Amino acid sequence: MGINSFSFENVQRWLKWNQLEEALRFHKIACSRLSEGDGDLKEVLVATGDRNEMLGWIFACLSADHRVWVANPKWKQAEWTQVAACVNPDVIIGAPVLEFRENQMVEADRRLTESGLMIPTGGSSGRIKFAWHDLSTMGAAVEGMASYFLGREDVRRGDFAFYCDLPLWHVSGWMQVFRAFVSDSSFTWDRDDVLKRQEVFEQREIWWYSLVSTQLHRLIQNREVHFLRSFDHLVLGGGAIRESIIHSALAHELQMYATYGLSETAGMVAGKRIQAEDDFAKGAEVFSHVSLRIAKEAKNLNEGEVLIKSKACCKGYNGRRFASRDWELYSGDIGMLDDEGKLHILGRSDRMIVTGGEKVNPLEVMDVLRKHPSISDCWVFGLEHETWGEVVSAVYVLDEKCSSFDEKEIQEFLSSKLGSYKIPKRWQRVERIPYDEKGKLVKQALIDVIAQMKK
User: Fold this and answer.
1) What is this structure's pTM?
2) Is the dihedral of CA 402, 404, 408, 411 positive or negative?
């Protein structure tokens, strides 16, 4: 997997060497707290907004063989209710304690037998669940990445030096830490530190910047192209990438990789290098650690849901193993393989909205929105957006008892129950939501309304 193992001593040395003093302090606190009690495997939930605290706790749990669940500290009541159904933690850092104490799971069902890292994902269902990874699945993902980018599976010191500004409760954020650690390489949150380190090392490390397209767009707009050029590899992920962003990046002579991956696969499983405009339309090369096929549909034998098999795939969800070891991951993405065996992602098989790299289940937003007294009915969907990829949008029917729509008041209502990225940014009133006799939405009837919202 790598040259650095998750021992207590290695973690402490690596954190100190990377000048992550606050993370080191939290790591010592976490190790001390986890050593208390009978020494059995503990369930630890970490939802702190302090990235150093989260990093310290994750390392402490992995090196001491506990199970750590990482969560978004900005979640609200609706999200925490879902989380409470998944875990009954022994240790809680940053999350609302009462939500979990009210949910007493059956002791025999806790299955505290194996450690690992639990990473949240919306999945194709839209409900929060946690993909269960361990050192072996994440190690397989690192080997696959090394094979694609470096032409070898053996990981060496300095292979994966990272500047990271993605949250650690995202697989794309955590895996940057993991890759840097197992290759005993540099890692920093400080962008100024990137240039300093590159000047200091005689044998220069390979510097990476993994980011979502929204971040790339902002950096280009803010005229920070010089910073982007300081990296050996710019790696884009986290959802669909708009062609206009690629065009802008190439106009500034930036070369990058567009990648495809999931929380369940510990990150990237396919990628393509983009050096020219024509590269954007090309398929992505499937990484060597992945077996991938298309579940073809009768209506179009070339397209279908992307199914993935890999040693990097998670062991299960919510701390429970999958029934079979020889299983395929149903990605929820529609794709096709071209004549060269390269992957083209065509869209989602569900209604999931991906905004700024965050997944939003529109059904969840609709459920909360319909509870507001001003709203008698609504429909939530994603509209294409140059910066965010998609922006959460809603059409609504005003309750007959209300004479006006107070957008600010309704957004405050939603903010108390949902994460900010789930709240609709665009609104349109309609007289009614069109349904057929079976109660299903007549999508064609909303096309004109949506078209007006796009303008």
Assistant:
1) 0.81
2) positive
